[in-house]
Write a structure and sequence with these properties.
flat; 32% helix
């Protein structure tokens, strides 16, 4: 091992490998699908993406049937619309835990990640819109001596 006397020696010793950007490659399973896990609040979604006609299935149902509210349907389709891939991929998702809003967010996160595994060049578009970031906000736990997480019991002087 060479002796390091200055910062220039350290730079030469480490080389330029550390400064190169990571290369993202396509990750597919044996069936030609990209798999990803999405999370939001207490909901966890397992998502598979494959080329197709644009059919989205959640827990064995069409996504319009599973997520009846238009807002949740819009949330689910955001990454596909942002990537300009409407009608090009079939999505199969199984989602557990949480409520409908958290489940829709989890499926959106899973679709975004699976799209980047199928088409790595979409990563920049989805990252810019914030679809690859896991929303870390969860419900705060209830504290003892309190009515809820922060709400105190009603105070009365008498």
């Amino acid at each position: 091992m060479a002796e390091l006397n200055s910062l220039q020696d350290l730079g030469a010793a480490t080389g330029t490998a550390a400064t190169e950007a990571p290369v993202h490659v396509q990750k597919l399973d044996a069936h030609g699908r990209a798999y990803a896990t999405g999370k939001r609040k207490n909901a966890i979604a397992r998502v598979w993406v494959k080329p197709g006609t644009g059919k989205i299935t959640v827990n064995g149902k069409a996504f319009e049937e599973y997520f009846a509210r238009p807002v949740l349907q819009m949330i689910l389709q955001q990454p596909i619309v942002a990537a300009n891939r409407t009608g090009q991929y079939d999505v199969v998702a199984t989602v557990t835990g949480g409520g409908l809003s958290g489940q829709a967010g989890a499926v959106r996160h899973g679709i975004s990640r699976a799209l980047t595994f199928y088409e790595p060049e979409l990563r920049a578009v989805l990252k810019k819109d914030g679809f690859l970031t896991r929303d870390a906000r969860v419900v705060e736990r209830k504290k003892y001596g309190r009515a809820k997480a922060r709400r105190s019991f009603q105070f009365s002087k008498r």
